[in-house]
Design a protein that fits this description.
Layout lengths: L1 E5 L4 H4 L2 E9 L10 E2 L6 E4 L5 E5 L4 E5 L2 E3 L6 E3 L5 E8 L19 E3 L10 H13 L1 H16 L6 H13 L7 H4 L4 H12 L3 H18 L8 H7 L5 H12 L3 H7 L3 H5 L6
Antiparallel strand pairs: 1-2, 2-9, 3-8, 4-7, 4-9, 5-6, 5-8, 7-10
Helix pairs in contact: 2-3, 4-6
């Protein structure tokens, strides 16, 4: 299994793009064939070879297609079909960034996967995309330079409106601030912040905060052995009222209780690792 994650080196792109990443599953790689992607308020553009299929499933819908596609922000766990070898490059955008882009369907959109012709967004041919994917396999830093060159003409001209700017400022506070206090800190009404945030992301501040905290909790669980997990400590560290509250929360997020999850360890973080920046 090959994978990496790197930041853009272009500030005009970095204001919209959180990171670039790469995963390649080869024929002899082992792991879960149907890993689950946990809820995520960010959106990701996936670049893939022309005929490479994709399949995503939540508890209501199945999304299938081939080659490039958008993974729009998702409030539900997505089951992926990674049973066959694949190669993908991901462009993960910041929360709310898709709202500023001139793409179809008009944003915000959640819980949807949409095929896209990459040439409708940037000047790319299938040949140049294959060159980029080959760079991802052999020269990650060169790949980042190529991605920056590819996306700079499109993303550098994007203007952020007042809703995007307010969303960005709210996100800067969200990790360490009670939601109810964010309006005061931004010197505007809480209702104004909530409306702009919902308009930009498709989520409430509370929903986004919950998904971000869940991501941190998954990283915590990934880093320790099952036998070392003290659920009382998890309850205290992540601000749950008690253990039943924690169980209900995890069940709601991924459709499994904590013990059921530990038996399968079938989220993408377990299959591909919490790969760090190169």
């Amino acid at each position: 299994m090959k994978n990496w994650k790197l930041d853009s080196k272009n500030k005009n792109i970095a204001r919209l793009v959180q990171c670039y990443w790469f995963i390649q599953k080869e024929p002899d790689d082992t792991g879960h064939d149907f890993p689950k992607l946990n809820p995520d308020p960010s959106g990701t553009l996936i670049l893939a070879p022309l005929e490479q299929p994709y399949s995503y499933k939540n508890n209501e819908s199945t999304f299938t297609g081939s080659s490039d596609h958008w993974i729009f922000p998702n409030s539900r766990t997505l089951q992926l079909d990674h049973s066959k070898p694949f190669t993908i490059v991901g462009i993960k955008f910041h929360v709310g960034a898709l709202y500023a882009l001139d793409i179809k369907p008009k944003q915000p959109v959640i819980d949807q996967i949409e095929g896209v012709n990459i040439s409708s967004l940037v000047e790319a041919t299938n040949s140049s995309k294959l060159d980029l994917i080959e760079q991802a396999q052999t020269a990650p830093n060169k790949c980042v330079e190529s991605l920056d060159e590819l996306f700079e003409p499109w993303l550098s001209g994007i203007q952020l409106d007042k809703h995007s700017e307010l969303c960005r400022r709210a996100l800067d506070l969200l990790s360490a601030t009670p939601v109810s206090k964010i309006g005061d800190l931004l010197h505007c009404s809480q209702r104004t912040v909530e409306r702009s945030f919902l308009r930009t992301t498709g989520f409430t501040l509370k929903q986004c905060q919950s998904m971000n905290n869940f991501e941190l909790m998954l990283e915590k669980l990934y880093s320790v052995d099952d036998s070392s997990i003290n659920w009382s400590d998890i309850v205290e560290e992540f601000g749950f009222s008690d253990q039943p509250h924690l169980i209900r929360y995890i069940k709601n997020m991924i459709g499994a209780t904590p013990n059921e999850y530990l038996k399968t360890r079938d989220l993408t973080i377990d299959t591909y690792g919490n790969f760090e920046q190169l």
